Protein 1
Amino acid sequence: MSHSWQKALISGSSSIKKALRIIDSEALRVALVVTPDRKLLGIITDGDIRRALLDGLSLEEPVSKIMNTSPIIASDSATKDQLVALMEKHQALSVPIVGQDGVVTGLETLHSALSKKRYQNPVFIMAGGFGTRLKPLTDNCPKPMLKVGDKPILETVIKSFIASGFNNFYISTHYMPEQIHEHFKGGEELGVSIFYVHEESPLGTGGALGLLPDNIPQNLPLIMINGDVLTTVNFERLLKFHEENNADATMCVREYDYQIPYGVINGEGNRITSMVEKPVHRFFVNAGIYVLSPRVVNSVEKNERIDMPSLLEKHMRDRQNILMFPIHEYWLDIGRMDDFKRAQVDIHTLGME
């Protein structure tokens, strides 16, 4: 992702001369025409400007007269491989990244997408649960090792991080750890490093942080994820969001809708003041993915039993610097049999096989 893409944003009333200056100075070869709330209207390339000059337009004319209003764009959930394939298919050197609401969130260039960045940030995967709700499948197999498609859930999780440039993994185990050790070993076959920490007794969703070795990178945020989560979240953008906001911790959240199946009556005393038929309430719920600063990771004592909400609440009281990162990408917590069956179908359309 180009770090200077915001400089490529201009309004529809800006002059062609300004667009030309941006294209020349920022080396992005494109200017993005947006509304005041940053919704994409069109793009302008050097070729668009040359054609305008050949048609006799002045450089003082507004860019709205020459912009391409139907440009090739990419979703902000697209992976690097998908972006490269898109640009190669359309022979484009860059592509705007646009969210579901039409707002520009970035600009990816072919050069940047092909230059694979490597992240040394530790990735900590919680894989110690019993998977009780998936019995009898988990009677002889830890839940993260159940196969979705042709590989274990945990392998899919690890490979999704590898595709984003991460290579430094830690796995917390408890239930049937030998199966996980035997399958992944030290990560040699995947070209990464995998280390294990073992919970002798369950320490809660956050307690395993206290078991991490002293030699993990001490100056880098850690990404933590439940080992039964199947998702297409862009981990690079998640990490960048955390770092840019200098957060103590960032929690990924999902929007959850709950519809009350009855008409809701509001009143004062015995007088009805309003009636709402089957209202829908919307909440943000924990998605089981976090980015944690070293200060949060190091605050957990060895063998301390603590859940992640309690850990984050403690730091919220201290500094009020815990953020949430709403995700709209695919996300599935494989906790129940229905979820497991759904994952078997979804995996074929996610490009994660």
Protein 2
Amino acid sequence: MPPFLPATTARATARVTWIDGARGIAIILVVLFHAGMFTVPTGLASPWWEPLNLVFALLRMPLFFLVAGMLAVGAVQRPWAALWRTRLAVLVWVFVVWTVLRFAYYQVVPEPIDLNQSSWTDLVLSVVRPSNGLWFLFALALFLVAAKVLVGRVNRWLVLAVAAVASSIIFGGVTFDNVAHDGIVKYFVFFMIGLYFREPIIHFVHRRRWAATAGLLVVFAAAIVLRGMTGSLIDALTAIPVGLVAVAFGLCLARSLARTPLSRPLEHLGTRTLQVYVTHILVLSSLTSLLLPFADTAVVAALRPVMPGLMSAVAIALSLLIAAGAARVPALRLLYVAPAWFSRAATRVPLR
């Protein structure tokens, strides 16, 4: 087997439960970020939530995509038909369904903040230029296709070098003026690191304890402070190293929490990130619209320091409940699962 091809042994593809915990941490941070996005501009939350959420910018999506890469080792080595059936179909289907659903929702319900999700132009262009939070699904599908093409054909160090340079340029301030295109270029390197180095990453995390996790947090915090004092060139050069420190902290935290009572809730959440990811924005939007008329009341004002956290907890819980309810109704189940006629390949190819 070429040295740049990930292993497909049972160990390399076996489920590691704390990885689900890491996904749980990532989705909590994503929901918290979006909760701040809704509540700070509308006056429902304290302004300091905005810079606080920015601190985790190099942890949220890098952790999400690196873990996705770790979980894609076996998938990208399946035949194309099997890759479509087991991974790509659901991403494409859910992306399209929820793009249309969000558009329809905001045709009826006014946007509490300027999300620009009621534009017909953006709806039409979403198949090539997503302009909302669903871009993660779009990017992940592209990453799986790219990995399928590259793995075993192009040297991994060349792939990582090109991806790292491109990512650094975007982190340095160059932009496509589109959240999806910028995100794709920024985070592809993290996905491929997770894909290529799954086993070394697991070995590294298994050797760390709480003291090492705390140390990584300190290094990450110090790096964020230093990046805040520098310009775009340093931002570009340090984004990936700092992001990897942040991801190492997230993974080690998930591993450490696996020994606590929090393990099961985090792992349960981590196995349902798709459901939460696509649902929570509409929940947050609805909660924001409901609370806005009461923004100046004493009760809501007293909750401003913790409002994003409270709304995140409610949004996650409601998203899980909505998804669980939808799973019981055949028609609604299609909100989260691709139908057989869409996901079934022309030829049934056994997984390997």
Protein 3
Amino acid sequence: MTDQQANGSTQNGQGPQFSLQRIYVRDLSFEAPKSPEIFRQEWSPSVSLDLNTRQKHLEADFHEVVLTLSVTVKNGEEVAFIAEVQQAGIFLIKGLDAASMSHTLGAFCPNILFPYARETLDSLVTRGSFPALMLAPVNFDALYAQELARMQAAGEAPSAIQ
């Protein structure tokens, strides 16, 4: 009975709600400018990863969060490949205060999207005949906290992260 009451109160909108509606690839690109010559060289890569998130309010309590992973891999001084994925999700989020909403969109949602983006990127790179990247996990909570501190030091309003 307690479970039914707890579920009923959430379904009636009396408490915070969070629901993943859809995960999808929004954009995907791969370029290997030095192919096929790059495959004949000794492989000693250096990897550069750029990470970005953005959020967009869709309608009512629906939000789109897009996680972008951009990887540039060089073999010596030559670019072996450039790969980018924009992994997106639609989330139903309601009943949160502004600070909690900002944290959910800026850290919690990207944490959900990252494994999908990492797998998509690995698949893309191996299809280009390169070794999988096997990117390490990312601590989006720490990145969110750093961005909040940067914004406060710059005198920007923390709600701008939304």
